[in-house]
Amino acid sequence: MRNIGLVATALVIGCFGFSQLSSVSAFGSYRSQLVTQFKLVDARVGCQYCHVDAGGGAPWNAFGQRVQNNLSGNIAKALYDSLADKADSDGDGYTDMLEVFAGSLPGNKDSAPLVAVKTLEVAFEKAGGLEQYKP
Ligand SMILES: [Ca+2]
Predict the structure, then answer these.
(1) Residue 33, C-beta contacts closer than 8 angstroms, at least 6 positions apart
(2) CA of 104 relative to ligand 1 center, distance in Å
(3) What are the extents of the domains in the chain?
(4) What are 6-19's pLDDT values in tens digits?
(5) Closest to 48 measured CA to CA, from 62, 37, 68
(6) Nearest to 66 by CA among 53, 54, 51
(7) Which has more confidence, 21 or 80?
(8) Å from CA of 17 to ligand 1 middle
């Protein structure tokens, strides 16, 4: 009897572990797409690019909410559409596309580019503008 209980417990833990792994993998693929599509430095991109907490999960920051609102099954399109909105999600004076280009966080008002908006806009357009982030 005791062995049956152990086997059942192992199965429950195994299934739970598997579902957690699947969940992590899905979010990991979103992160990979973000890093690749936005030409970011992989090691510098944490969960707080889109989430409020460093560990991810709910809640999402203003930029993460924008991506969620644009998500209809295709993360690459949702990421592009979020920049094409030309919004300043965190209200720090820089549009999300300029923040992505500069390497600051588009959903965190405490993270902003160190150069003036006009200077950054010129460099952004010279580098290819919004088209450089098209999937
Ligand atoms: Ca910001």
Answers:
(1) 75, 76, 79
(2) 6
(3) 2-133
(4) 333 333 333 333 33
(5) 62
(6) 51
(7) 80
(8) 35
Q: Residue type for 127, please?
A: A
Evaluate whether 56 touches 112 at the Cβ level (below 8 Å).
no
pTM passes above 0.70: yes
**Count of all residues that appear for the chain in the document:** 135
CA of residue 135 to ligand 1 center, whole Å: 23
Beta bridge mates, 60: 51
Mention every residue, 6+ apart, whose C-beta is less than 8 A from residue 135: 37, 76, 77, 79, 80
Quote the ligand 1 centre to 91 CA distance (angstroms): 7
- The pLDDT score that the predictor gives to residue 6 is 39
Identify whether the C-beta of residue 93 lies closer than 8 Å to the C-beta of residue 76: no
Report yes or no: 78 and 33 within 8 Å, Cβ to Cβ: no
